[in-house]
Amino acid sequence: MAAEQAEHVLTPTSYIQHHLTFMTQPVGNTPFWSVNVDSLVVSFVVGVIAFGFLYWVARGATAGVPNKRQAFVELTFDFINEQVKSIFHGDASFIAPLAATVFVWVLFMNAMDFLPVDIMAWIYHNVFGLTYFRSVPTADVNTTFALALSVWLLMIFFTIKVKGVGGFIHELFCAPFGGNPLLWIPNFLFNLIEYISKPLSHSLRLFGNMYAGEIIFLLLGMWASTGLVGTFFGTILSLGWAIFHILIVALQAFIFMMLTIVYLAMAHEGH
Description:
mainly alpha, two-stranded antiparallel ribbon, globular
């Protein structure tokens, strides 16, 4: 009995490793390909809830005095639309809805970090029978890379759509230093670095902030389990960090949206 209990005693290292382990499902027989099921499921559920709420508000929208829900949504979309107009000066019929989608979805995925990790782990294990399941999709670099690569592909698409294949290739080799043949390779290398750095910085900024926030919550949770003093200070610090984390959650969603707008605006412009 004592040996069985000892097996269930988590050390600080195993505690953190347990909460940072994904529910990973291999794809085929190749170990390289695998899917983090928890990230996909939570992203989908959060997306359905977030956009279902917006759809519900839109269905009940009136032309008269708006209710509180409608006023809140209108203020949010007016704010996003103003950000788009300040950066992108063309037809924003696609970019403005895309920016709103990115902001709302990333905001809700980030907000999953407010769920208590130990309580959620207990629910996942005892209700759903899951040993490993993470609640924050944006703390998974695969999720943030998928979002950033989607924006990157849209950027390439709009660059070719606006400038044509010839214009895209010309800009790739002749900007920003000029069209002299001796400068083609430096221009290409410069643009290659730019194109590679955009999805990297776009994804890793969001991932790094959310992953760090998750680690801090785990460390404070461990401290709160060390005794009465640890419980007191751990609770106070966790509350303080949660309040500060509200700013991080909203700010990272805003930055991800703004970079999306900037990258797509750059695709419509020439050097």
